[in-house]
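note to self: dont lose this again. the chain is below, predicted strucutre after it. 880 aa total, dont forget to put it in the shared folder this time
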Amino acid sequence: MTGPDAGRAATAMEGPAAGGPLVRGRAVADGYVIDSGLIGVDEARERVVTAWQAGARLAMLPDGAWLLVLPSAADVRAERAPGLPAQRGQAGRMRVWRHGRLHEFDVEQLPQVNPAGWVDLAGLPVHLLSAVLPARPDPVLEPLPPPAPIRTELRSAAGVGVDPSAERMARVLAAREQRAQRAGARAAWRGRGAVRRGAANGVTGTGGRRRTSGAGSTVMSWLANGPAGAVFRSRHERYVRALAEDFHHNRFDDALRRAIALGGAGGRLTVRLPLPRRGPLAPTPLRSDGGPGLSAPPTVEQYLRTLYTQAAEDLERLGRIEEAAFVRADLLANAWDAVLLLERHGRLALAAELAEGRQLDPAVAVRLWWRAGRRDRAVDLARLRGGFADAVQRLTQTDPSAARELRAEWVQRLLDAGDLHAAVDTAWPESGLRPLVLPHLPAGIAAGGPSGARLLAHLVTHQPTPAAVDAALAVLTSRDEDLAPARAAFVAALGQLRAADLAADRRLASAALRLLTREPTLLAASSDRVARHTTRQLRERADPVLAADAPPTTIARGPDRPRPVEVVAAAEPGHQDVKDAVALPGGVLVGLGDCGTRLLTPEGRVRARWDLRADQLVVADHGRTALLLGWGETTVDVHHLDLTTRKLRHWAHLSARRAVGTFDGALLTLIDDQGLAVLDTTASRPRTVWRELEPGVTVHDLARGPGWITALVQGPAVSVDLVPQLWSWQLPQMILRHRSPVALTTQDGGGSLRGAAVAAAAGLLALHDHDTGPVLTLQNTAGRAIAQATGESLVAVLGSGPFHAAVHQQEGALTVDVLAPWQPAPRPWPEAVVRVHFRNAAAIGIRDHDGVVTIHDSRGRIVAVDTATGRIAANLTLRE
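---
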């Protein structure tokens, strides 16, 4: 640039005040001077591309050098910068050292250099993006092989053609049998003779065996005792004699293929005899129909049982292990004996398959899969069915090395689920596994709360460094009332642990003993046995002089607190629409929908925020992780939040309609188009762990607790008359324990259902509109106990965890009564443990975590109360 333009664009500054260019040391650079003539155009382009930022500009100086102007200043070392650092001066002009002088340039006046053509995109692949579809969860375990068919068509297997006359005779005989059955059924309904008496007494068959009455069993009784009874019995007698002959002469192959199963479905009475089995004679993991039974006295069944038992022993002695296991599992219906037999002879994979398929104790299948080398299946099965602890204990007795390896996998799974406290408790008995959890302890301790105090006790006893001991003593000597739960947790853990350094252990035990003397109610929440053991341990390890002078330590239970605990929420509403909120040991986690997610202190200060949509919070039972759910019409976007490290990651986009508010840190329960599903959130992509219900079943409400899942369901697959039922599954075994119909009306038979709320393992609270006013009806999960209460001001019912809540409205204010988990005695109706009053409230929500109930309204007010101690954990309003 020359002439007048150069004079307007640049101003030279001379004199000692100008200083000199900075070529070494740290500098704040608003841009760089890159001399393309000195280093070459290619090198200059590479430096520009490397240092480029969004919003940067590239201009040319009058001498041909390039000036790269950054959108924001960068702290760099001058000797490592891509060019000579330049700074902004007055009015945004760039100050640049060139040719021994300091110049100021107006970037707008300089010619611009466009680097867009420097990058050749011709060789880059082009990817066409498509819409993001909900993920289809994969099954976590491949299914076991189906059972082998018992009845086979031998004619086709032998290549024998079909005889038309035989087919006609078979059709004639089948028609006669159908007519006989219809005639027997009509005779049964008319109540004639012995058939009528047998049906009335519920007795069919021979030998006095009592079975369920019905048309089918009546027909079989008529066949056995009627005119065809002689032929019927003779066929079975010949069959039994021929079968015994084969077993006595060691013709095991023929005998086992024709043998009839005992127990289970094999006890039915049928006319047909079993057809020979085909294929290998091995135990079937999934038990199928045992086949037809015998019209014979119980002595014949006992005879066959003895015959089969002897055959199993003979086959085992001959080394025919799988056939012996087949006799035990399929013929005698004793899967446990078959598993033990296979394990004795090293058939571990088949034994594990049989134990899993026959639904034996999960720990048995876990141990066998682990020993068989299928460790992936063993770990998955243990985590999904809760078999880790028993499997480790069983393996310790036979293979301690394998037990340690399985325990290590257990610890890693707990860490993946974010349950650091459980991982520490699991790893601590094996000193060699403690390094797996030690790196995670500082983050867990920093989270605070009782869990952090227990982790501090593990750290200070394992590594009693001066810093760790000082931190522990600070906890023990603190007088902050809010830290009382943390002090109690630390003292209880210290009573179970012993520091590696005796001097440090004595200091800690002495401080804990002084604390118990000062606060006798500190261990009031612990059982008497734990409290006595803790105080005895601390006295034995404390300073002898202090232990001798200290008064006897008594564990006081403290005065009874008033029930219910009454809290008045803030009078003025906030400015945020709260979608969900739950009080955790690390603070109050709040979902604000499109406004993101926040972690608040009990006073309402923001500890952390995430600008991510959260319509629902699914919190882990241990309180260290949470899932943030953003709902669409039929899909949900799921993000995983680690509350210890504050890290957030996207997990999956799923097709679902509803999800529960808690999980164990790994398994998420939700409702989709196919029913109820449990997904593994620790996997890289969703995996289906367990399914229940069927498509078309309506789930009206769903609740989960640490040990139970309870749902209010309705549909043709649930009941023929479409009456809703309350289903309850026990975790982690995922076994349906209770299934009971729901009373749609009040006890007097009147009233229409207005609303219902399910609580895990606690039952159903229903609100009815009655002629006399609103009525509350409470039904437990077993359907046996029903209680009822009335109230003119009742407007809604809520449920979370084991708690129900009834909402009352009076004079423009809402009152929420949180009911204690219901017990049949001594009170006919559960008492309210927490009562919260809201003025000018909108929609009310309730959440429970570890006994702390959080109640919020959609206008930004949040109240949290510990139901065990009555302590108000939070009472705040969101105003930002």
